[in-house]
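Progress report, Aim 2. The chain analyzed during this reporting quarter is listed below.
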Amino acid sequence: MEPSAQHVTLVLKAAAEGDQAATDELLPLVYEELRKLARQRLSGEPSGQTLQPTALVHEAYLRLLGEPEVTWSNRGHFFAAAAQAMRRIMIERARKHQAPQHGGGRQRLTLDDCLIAIDDQGEQLLDLERAMTQLEARDARKAQIVMLRFFAGLTIEQTAIALDLSPATVKNEWRFARAWLHSEMSEHVADV
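Predicted structure tokens for the chain:
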């Protein structure tokens, strides 16, 4: 049985206040949803990549709990923070793999059948990160909507609740943000 949003919010608040029992209860409450989120984020990664959903969940969870000054106002806020942590982990990983000492820019050959495997996903993720940074500077709320919809996998309705907006506003701003990001990413590819 899936825990209610209210129960998760109460546990989050208790954990933020230093209640060790609540902290111990938190991961089992949110684990499956975090794994679903991680699987969704990693589904676009090339086959054969080494980052698994479980590792992404654990790394993101450790980062979330490692920030003592952060308190989450509700379940939506927590999952937005988890999505942000996963985004950062994936961006760090993509940057690392693009670095020259890790073979960045080189074509990779498999020994089995000598097929060329070019890691375009890492470059696309870095392009998305550049565009997201520009969107955050231009319109923080639209960037937050993208974070919740794309990185956290929330629905229009869940995003509206998390941001205290109407679903129509979220839908319109999501549509604009997607088009703007696509345009920015396409422009960057054309410049290269």
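The longest strand covers residues 108-109. Residues 5-191 form one domain. These observations will guide the mutagenesis work planned for the next reporting period.
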